[in-house]
Design brief:
Layout: H1 2-11, H2 35-41, E1 45-50, H3 58-67, E2 70-73, H4 79-82, H5 92-103, E3 107-114, H6 121-124, H7 130-147, E4 154-159, H8 172-177, H9 181-192, E5 197-202, H10 210-224, E6 231-234, E7 237-239, H11 248-256, E8 261-272, H12 277-296, E9 300-305, H13 315-318, E10 322-323, H14 336-349
Parallel strand pairs: 1-2, 1-9, 2-3, 3-4, 4-5, 5-6, 6-8, 7-8, 8-9
Antiparallel strand pairs: 8-10
Helix pairs in contact: 1-2, 2-14, 7-9, 12-14
Bound molecules: (3S,4R)-3-hydroxy-2-oxopiperidin-4-yl beta-D-xylopyranoside.
Length: 354
């Protein structure tokens, strides 16, 4: 069983080195096959983000390392963490998450090189000419992506570059460098790590609309210009009160048809708390629908949930009165959403289904 799992991951190109693992190293807590194993059988990954403070929680880590076959650092690779002072780099936290991933034979999505949030003060508060900022951006990307060269499956090179109406987001990079910063960032990332899959990543991209249309136009142009771009990441921060994005599968497919990989990169499905049975049932249905949408698109390589337990979800701190967004509750017990994802993956893995 673990060998089949490892072979499927290798076939999907998600890991470079596979070590034989005793069967006991991958016990599903509630079922004999884990989400990761089921996803791997369909040549996908099912991952969870994690964050360094959580590394003191042994019960949490046990599930993270056994149930999922991919992970990403929720914060550790962001600019404030990796270049806290100009030209001074610190990869301690990112390395901690990556080491965990490697020990548990998980693929690793690296997040993120260029973003307007969680920038260090020196960058936020500084005044830079275009030439200076271009040099800063280039050095940041080359240094960070070189540090992780050959060790990560993918990079979210630019995160959240567009507004809801499809115009460019007014960030320090856009303001100072113009829209060409995106192509530059992708080229520098490729130079630094020729094998990592290079992604643009954003939220509210799930449905067809002005924002996803803007990405569609941009990635088409980038490809036509020979700019290295491998994938588009759909964050998937969904909320019950806004309705399910019905065009998700069709949207994933149109990007895939451009010759790109697609992935659901930060999935969580929040609700107003307290949760109740009906809301949790709808949430479970949505998790299943997202999973099925990815499985129905050949180039949808996998799904990452934005941590797996409500114990460590970012939602309550950011969206007042909302929460309960993840497939495990605050006591690390699986919710209906867990079974829904599992069932969707298992159905897809049945012979004759793909
Ligand atoms: C979030 C983290 O989970 C939080 O811990 C942090 O305080 C803020 O950022 N879109 C992204 C992620 O691309 O990087 C964000 O992560 C969530 C929204």
């Amino acid at each position: 069983m673990p060998h089949r799992f490892a072979a499927a991951l290798a076939a999907a190109g998600l890991v470079t080195a596979i070590a034989a693992t005793p069967a006991s190293a991958h016990p599903g807590p509630h079922h004999d096959k884990t989400l990761g194993e089921l996803a791997a059988a369909s040549h996908r990954y099912l991952g969870s983000a994690t964050d360094n403070p959580e590394f003191s929680d042994a019960a949490y880590l046990k599930i993270l390392g056994s149930e999922f076959n991919s992970t990403t650092a929720g914060n550790a690779l962001k600019w404030y963490a990796t270049e806290p002072q100009q030209g001074v780099f610190d990869f301690t936290q990112g390395d901690q998450v990556l080491d965990f991933a490697r020990k548990h034979h998980m693929s690793f999505r690296a997040h993120t090189l260029v973003w307007h949030n969680q920038l260090p003060d020196w960058l936020n508060n500084g005044t830079f000419t275009a030439d200076q900022l271009r040099a800063i951006l280039k050095n940041h990307i080359l240094t960070e992506a070189r540090h992780y060269r050959g060790k990560v499956y993918s990079w979210d090179v630019v995160n959240e570059a567009f507004n809801e109406d499809g115009t460019y987001r007014d960030t320090i990079f856009y303001r100072t460098l113009g829209p060409g910063y995106i192509a530059d960032a992708l080229r520098w990332a490729r130079e630094a790590d020729p094998h990592a899959k290079l992604y643009l990543n954003d939220y509210n991209l799930e449905a067809i609309g002005p924002k996803s249309d803007a990405y569609y136009t941009l990635v088409k142009q980038l490809k036509a210009q020979g700019v290295p771009i491998d994938g588009v990441g759909f964050q998937g921060h969904l909320a019950l009160q806004y309705g399910y994005p019905d065009t998700l599968q069709q949207n994933l497919q149109r990007f895939a048809d451009l010759g790109l990989d697609v992935a659901i990169t930060e999935l969580d499905i929040r609700m107003y708390v307290p949760a109740d049975e009906a809301k949790l049932a709808t949430q479970a249905d949505w998790y299943a629908r997202v999973t099925k949408a990815c499985l129905a698109v050949r180039r949808c390589v996998g799904i990452t949930i934005w941590d797996y337990t409500d114990k460590y979800s970012w939602i309550p701190a950011v969206f007042q009165g909302e929460g309960a967004a993840l497939p495990y509750d605050e006591n690390l017990q699986p919710k209906p959403a867990y079974d829904a994802i599992r069932d969707a993956l298992r159905d897809a893995g049945r012979p004759g289904r793909h």
